[in-house]
Design the sequence.
């Protein structure tokens, strides 16, 4: 989904290939998609007697769409209508365009990410940078720890002036036990594995 800015500039975004978790699908962001996603999520979680998760997922989805409207989001990824129960993780994944300041190269941005955020090459592949940060969000008046993992790769033939950025946000319990840590590490490792399959689709 091209942004108005990209359309006015005559820019194109190459399509890409990415292996997703079982049951997850790629979608384009829109108000209609948001409303349909909320309905489907509610029906699914009520059917498996998890209304507690719906409040959390509803807030996450609403916030995700609001955030997507503020940036050049080209896609988001969530469990599809036929996804198995185990696909419903407290996590969201979006893909957006990131631009160099004032139309310049992103080289200085990348250097800063390495220096200040500890960004490293995903699985040793220098085409994809990865970094993460911890935060706390207020969901229905409750403080919910979140871990955000960002994956960053330059768009071909743009002189490194544009990049595609994947943002994974995981909501989780406070890390107080080995089980808490294992859950969070498992989700991060799963998405690291899937993002490592990323490639630009050949023309």
Sequence:
């Amino acid at each position: 989904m091209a942004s108005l800015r990209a359309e006015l500039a005559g820019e194109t975004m190459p399509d890409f290939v990415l292996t997703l978790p079982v049951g997850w699908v790629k979608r384009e962001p829109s108000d209609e998609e948001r409303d349909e996603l909320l309905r489907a999520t509610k029906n699914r979680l009520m059917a498996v007697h998890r209304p507690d998760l719906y409040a959390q997922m509803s807030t996450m989805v609403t916030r995700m769409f609001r955030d997507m409207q503020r940036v050049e989001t080209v896609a988001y990824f969530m469990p599809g209508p036929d996804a198995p129960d185990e696909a419903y993780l407290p996590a969201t994944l979006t893909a957006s365009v990131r631009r160099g300041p004032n139309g310049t190269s992103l080289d200085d941005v990348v250097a800063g990410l390495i220096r200040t955020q500890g960004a490293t090459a995903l699985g040793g592949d220098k085409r994809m940078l990865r970094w993460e940060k911890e935060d706390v969000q207020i969901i229905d008046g409750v403080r919910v720890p979140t871990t955000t993992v960002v994956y960053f790769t330059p768009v071909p033939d743009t002189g490194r002036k544009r990049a595609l950025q994947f943002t994974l946000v995981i909501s989780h319990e406070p890390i107080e036990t080995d089980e808490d840590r294992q859950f969070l590490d498992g989700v991060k490792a799963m998405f690291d594995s899937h993002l490592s399959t990323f490639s630009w689709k050949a023309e």
Notes: Residues 4-9+23-200 form one domain. The chain has a mean pLDDT of 87.
